[in-house]
Amino acid sequence: MNDHAFETSAATPPVLSSELLGFPPDARVLIVNNDDFGMYHAINTAVVDSIEEGIASSCSLMVPCPWALHAMHLLRRRPEIPFGIHLTLVCDTTHYRWGPLVAKEKVPSLLDERGGLFTPAGVPELLARARLDEVELEFRAQIDAVVDTGLAPTHLDWHCLADGGREDIFDLTVALAEEYGLAVRVWLEPGRRKSRRQGLPVTDNDFLDSFGLDIDGKAARYAELLRDLPVGLSEWAVHPGLGNEESRAIDGGWRVRRTDYEFLTSPEARELLRREGIVVIDYRTVQQAWSRTGAPR
C-alpha cells in the first residue's frame, strides 16, 4: 500500500517509531483503533466491547454523528478508554445523514449541491473546492465540542480522507494537534516523511484499513497478519459493529463491521497476540512523544 522503509543513508541505520516510543529494536508494536465511534448505537456498543473484552486498544469519535453524545457519555463513564477525534467532512450513507457542526452558511465549500456533506464518491469534488479556513472552522468545532465537556482525546485522524486528503489539510490538522497537545494518525508517505524529519513517531509499516479486507475468510486473514506482523510500529483501523437489525437498516458496510467485531472479541485473537509476543498500545504513548517533540512545521 505504501513504502514503509525509512529514508536513510547506508551509513545511518533506520530508527523505528517503536524505538522512539521506548521499545527495543526487535519489538512488534500494534495500535488497534476502532474507527467510527458515535455513528450509531450498534457501533458504540461494539466499540466498547472490543476494547473492554477484546484486543482493540483505542477508538476514534465521529463528533457530528447522531450517536456521538451517547459515545461521549460512554467515555465519561469509562475514563480508562483512550480515544481520538475522527475529523469528519464526509457522510457515508444516503438515508442516515449527519452534517457539519458549524452553521451551514459558514462552510458552503464543504457542502454538496443538496447542502449536505459529500458522500465518499464525492470526495474528489470536496477536496477540489474545500476552503482551508472553512475546514479549520469545522475541525475546531469538532475538537472543541469534545474538549469543552472535559473529555481528553489523545489524537486526531480523519474519516474517509487519508492524511486529510490534501497537503494543506494535513498541515492544518498537525498544527491543531500541536495546539491541543494531541498526536496525529499519519500513514501516507509524504506525511510520514515530514513527521520523521521532526523525530515524531508514525506507523513504520503498511497501514491496515479493515474495509480493504475480504469478508470471507477474514478471521484467518487477521490471524495471518498477526503472525506476519513486522518489527516496528503498525496500526490497524478496524470498524466493529454488532451487525444487528439496526446495523442492517442503516449501514451497507455492516458485514465488515460484524466480522471485525467477531475477530476482535475472539479468544483466538488474544491468544495470537500472546503467542506472537505482540505489544498492543494505544495513542496515549504516541501522544506523549508528540507532545515532547512538537509538531512538524
TrEMBL record:
Gene3D superfamilies in the cross-refs: Glycoside hydrolase/deacetylase (3.20.20.370)
A Pfam family hit: YdjC
Alphabetical list of CDD domains matching this protein: YdjC_TTHB029_like
SUPFAM superfamilies named in the record: Glycoside hydrolase/deacetylase
Required co-factors: Mg(2+)
Originating organism: Streptosporangium vulgare
Superkingdom of the source species: Bacteria
Protein's UniProt name: Polysaccharide deacetylase family protein
InterPro entries: Glyco_hydro/deAcase_b/a-brl, YdjC-like
Entry keyword set: Carbohydrate metabolism, Hydrolase, Magnesium, Metal-binding
